[in-house]
Amino acid sequence: MRYWYSQNNSEIDTGDLNWNTVDDVTSHTAEIFGELEDTTTNMFMRAYLGLGRNFGGEGDFYIFPSGDLESSALGYVVVDGGVRFGEFINNQIRLKGYVGYQYLNDSIDAVDGRLVAEQTRQWHALRVGLTAEGDIGERFGWVVDVAAVPWSYNRVETWESDWTHGVETDVMLNFDLARNWNIGIGGRYWWLQSNFDRRWVSDGSKAVLEQNYQRYGLLLESSYRF
User: Fold this and answer.
1) Which residues make Cβ contacts (< 8 Å) with residue 17, sequence separation at least 6?
2) What pLDDT, on a 0 to 100 scale, did the predictor assign at position 181?
3) Which of 93, 101, 190, 205 lies most in the core, judged by the most C-beta atoms within 10 Å?
């Protein structure tokens, strides 16, 4: 199990026109994760599922100026598969390469008087990454995971992205409480940038908008190894 305390900031703009800005959204997420490894081939598969809520923050929408945001839903699924290809210093440092898939759904609800603006943001992303893990003495360990997102489909309400790219990282320090029971503390950072080509209904002119999405925060972990 993991708990992720995170904050979200995002914006959609053309460089000259700020269409949508969301700042200082605080999120609490419960996460279930697991990993299976074949020790004969060094191949592995891992997955994690997170469900949470967004609280607070401020939003500013071009056609719907708003102040404080309402509570809204946050959810994601990540599935990775790869192989452990390197061992160093008597297996105290290990390297893994992988490819994977991520689904992310992050909703924003803004209220201004009696008006409510609900914005659903969804990503379907390809991940290509590297994991380095190691031991510090007999009871401490560390994990650094870096994934590039070379492509993703991003949908913001009815808007569909032409492309999305980004970077996602996890860093964790673990401590063995018992023979197979670990606890850990660390951090996570997600950055996704999307491109949207839009035409204004009024005059048909074209505008290229970019969404800059960031989520980052503290990770707490409890795991058991079989």
Assistant:
1) 62, 207
2) 95
3) 190
Residue with tokens 């924003």: 108
Q: Give the contacts of 71 (CB within 8 A, at least 6 positions apart).
A: 53, 54, 55, 109
pLDDT of residue 201 exceeding 60, the answer is: no
> In Å, what is the CA distance from 193 to each residue of 11, 184, 214, 220?
10, 30, 9, 27
Angle at 201 between CA 197 and CA 202, to 5 degrees: 130
Q: What is the pLDDT of residue 65?
A: 65
52 vs 69, 119, 138, CA distance in Å?
16, 16, 35
- pLDDT tens string 35-44: 999 999 999 9
Which tokens belong to 98? Answer: 């992988």
CA distance 136 to 96: 18
Phi, psi of 127, rounded to the nearest 5 degrees: -115, 135
Tokens representing 134 are 């190691």
Instruction: Give the distance, in angstroms, between the CA of residue 2 and the centroid of all CA atoms in the same chain.
Output: 14
